[in-house]
Specification:
Blueprint lengths: L1 E6 L8 H15 L3 E6 L9 E3 L14 H12 L3 E6 L4 H12 L4 E5 L5 H14 L7 E4 L2 H11 L5 E3 L6 H4 L14 E6 L8 H14 L6 E6 L5 H11 L4 E5 L3 H8 L4 E4 L8 H8 L4 E4 L14 E4 L2 H13 L1 H13 L7 H24 L1
Parallel strand pairs: 1-2, 1-4, 2-3, 4-5, 5-6, 6-7, 8-9, 8-11, 9-10, 11-12, 12-13
Length: 373
Amino acid sequence: MRILHVSDCYLPRLGGIEVQVADLVRAQRAAGHEVRVATATAGAPMDGVERIVAPLPYELPVHPRGTGRLLALMRGYAPDVVHVHAGAVSPFAWMGVRAAVRAGLPVVVTVHSMWDVVTRTVYRALNAVYRWNRWGLVGTAVSEAAARPIRRVAGPRVPVRVVSNGLDVAAWRPAGPRSRTEPDAPVHVVAVGRLAPRKQPLRLLKLLEETRRRVPASVRLRATIVGDGPARASMERYLRARGMGWVSMPGRYPRERIRELLESADVFVAPAPRESFGLAALEARTAGVPVVARTQSGVADFVRPGKEGLLGRDFTELAACLARLAGDAALRESIAEHNRATEPVQCSWPAVLAGFDRCYALAVERTRLRRSG
């Protein structure tokens, strides 16, 4: 199949969408598909990547004539399907949707983010003007939590399927049984993610502080927060002011170092309530680490309470879950054994590719019916 991916952001940027789309492209090429990418992200030439870039401030990934440029690309390349990748606000991606519809091509739109109240209001307004839910689109979301608000806005005219983010499961599986730590070793809590205000990183520090308060003094704790971003300075000030020297912030790690870190982790915490998927949490779960996360986040798709970890509906419940795991070595070990013994098959690349193939077939059929009707 000939596939054209359209994404505002792509390599060399290294955000969640960029890395996931690049991994999908590699997996599809390995499966025998012919794949190209159209992006508004500047960068060095890459095989099969068309950079539609305008000289805008801050290298914003958008182009004022993006629809026309994309339409010309699509007519020249003639893909079997156009796969658009969108965040909450993705002007270039939606130019790709419009261009594909004008070209009469099947379109699959993957929304990688969680639509909040403001986003839902914007898309309802756009639908009132453009009637985009009548364009024959097929939507996908990365989790059930992310799919629900999209379905409420799009209505029954747009099928919205859940296709998980993909992971090289074998690469994250532990090589063997975990070596036992010393009985009095600190319980190691790990978090990984961008330190951005929307991720509520200060809430993470307050969560760790509350956990320390709830856990008996006989239980030693240490925490490692991997990542970087605009909230780092305020987090460091908070740690100094509260005397939380048991929490370290080593900065951003490459994937290889995160794998090494997870070998010593006892608990992984993903506290953001509006996490559309939680790839770092999936990596930890696959590596055998118990996960603590919010019930309403996308992490709930692959973490069941008492099986792969514990889930909390709010800050208080999340603190109780983290404190429970920190203070109960037997529970931690039983969840860790389950995670090491079972694989999250629905997140493996073969399952993800099969899911997208079904969406592509549905989009092709819907386009055929639209033309004939």
